[in-house]
Amino acid sequence: MAPKKLYIKTYGCQMNVYDSERMAEAMGGEGYETTERPEDADMILLNTCHIREKAAEKVYSELGRYKGLKAARPDLKIGVAGCVAQAEGEEIMRRQPMVDLVVGPQSYHRLPEMEAKVRTGGKALDTDFPEEDKFDHLKGRPKAKRGPTAFLTVQEGCDKFCAFCVVPYTRGAEVSRPADRVLTEARDLVERGVREITLLGQNVNAYHGHDGGLAGLIHALAEVDGLERIRFTTSHPNDMDEALIEAHGTCDKLMPYLHLPVQAGSDKILKRMNRQHTAEQYLRLIERLRAARPDLHLSGDFIVGFPEETEADFQATLDLIEAVEYGSAFSFKYSERPGTPAAERPQVPEAEKDDRLQRLQALLTKQQRSLQDAMVGRDVHVLFEKPGRLPGQMVGKSEYLHAVHVETSGIVPGDMARIRIESSGPNSLKGVMSPL
Ligand code: 5AD
Ligand code: SF4
Asked: For position 171, which CATH number holds?
């Protein structure tokens, strides 16, 4: 029998990227192979994000686009997975009767049986938070070769309850995967060609599946032969313990790039966001991290226009950014999420949010560019990932996560080399093999 085709569209964070891979693998066991073309698919699965309003609305407009396909081929099954599924499961089925299946992020291991149910004409909805670990119940990953970098989810959920955020509601309480399972999966990835693993979690540095916390897990992973690089994302400042700070100085395989969101620079706003730390505490933490690893590049997330943010509060965010100097960052206009405490507070006008976002992004872009330009003349270590756009060119990432283009022969994906940076463009660096 010809394999059935599965089209998965992934929105949102890297954890969804990882989940989509695992869902594709689970459905592989049910005779599905993935396709890049929705029009060829027997099943379309949208793996959704609920973090901001726009993200959720995108799902409904995407579903609208499949109406014609579904009318022409009633056999086509349409599923919604991810955080919108978790938050609005029944509502989705009501609003879009063409949806056959709704599955929340903790129930992906039940996807094959749900698929069987919808094949026979039923509807399936599962947004439970089951006791069992979905990753244990998902089929083992196939042994196929894969690229040099991979995501590996080690922790899910969040207990922090920042006042703007839906994650504690959609992904539930913090859960860590046991270290031995993570290590087994990591060894398997390495056997299949992976050289760099990014450990994922909504609040990854709260990881407690190893006695030594996330630092313990990182040190254990560093013992895996053939694994060259370790990264982790995303972290909360209050879970940055001493051992993890130290690991940045002592573990060679841990890359000198850290995503450590602060969201805002005003203590009043941080308090209202329920971040549980001040701007000063965040800055002191950065100092300690830089003492452990002086060349550390920092990345962050920022929200502008949080309820009751004044111009002076916003200025405090700009001041904090000036003090830190970020290598990269993500910034967002505050988006009201029903059911979260901040949604009930007096809102900042949209035009004000737009203006602040522009000013914030101008500053962050300037910093990003100046740190990137400062790489010119220096040597970096590049892990090559794929051919570049130009013939004979390869692209990889430096330890600081800069994209680096090199024109060279004899390098294949997965190779690492010391590269001397010669120029810096808008989004990437160019270099040559270092003479050293
Ligand atoms: N509005 C805007 N941005 C948000 N984020 C989370 N919730 C919201 C919201 N309601 C941002 C935060 C978080 C990132 C993943 O998304 O900056 O760190
Ligand atoms: Fe959301 Fe992150 Fe805050 Fe948790 S720590 S509530 S995931 S922003």
From this structure: 3.80.30.20
Q: How far is CA 134 from the centre of its chain?
A: 19
Tens of pLDDT, residue by residue over 136-188, are: 766 555 667 889 999 999 999 999 999 999 999 988 999 999 999 999 999 99
Three-state SS for 58-109 is HHHHHHHHCHHHHHHCCCCEEEEEHHHHHHHHHHHHHHCCCCCEEECCCCHH
Q: Does residue 161 sit in the same domain as residue 229?
A: yes
Kindly state whether residues 99 and 182 are assigned to the same domain: no
CB distance 301 to ligand 1 below 6 Å: yes
Per-residue burial over 144-156, b if 16 or more Cβ lie within 10 Å, else e, is: eeeebbbbbbbbb
Question: Can you tell me which atom of ligand 2 is nearest the CA of 263?
Answer: 8
The SS3 assignment for 33 reads strand
- Closest ligand to residue 172's CA: 2
In a domain, 78, yes or no: yes
Pocket of ligand 2 contains residue 166 by CB under 6 Å: no
**Domain count across the chain:** 3
Whether residues 116 and 177 fall in one domain: no
209 and 73 share one domain: no
Distance 261 CA to ligand 2 centre (A): 9
211 with 93, same domain: the answer is no
Q: What is the pLDDT of residues 236-287, one digit of tens each?
A: 999 999 999 999 999 999 999 999 999 999 999 999 999 999 999 999 999 9
Q: For 108-132, what is the mean pLDDT?
A: 87
User: Which residues span the domain enclosing 385?
Assistant: 379-433
> Of how many residues is the chain composed?
436
Kindly give the number of the ligand 1 atom that is closest to the alpha carbon of 337.
Answer: 10
Q: Which of helix, strand or coil describes residue 184?
A: helix
Is 354 among the domain residues?
no
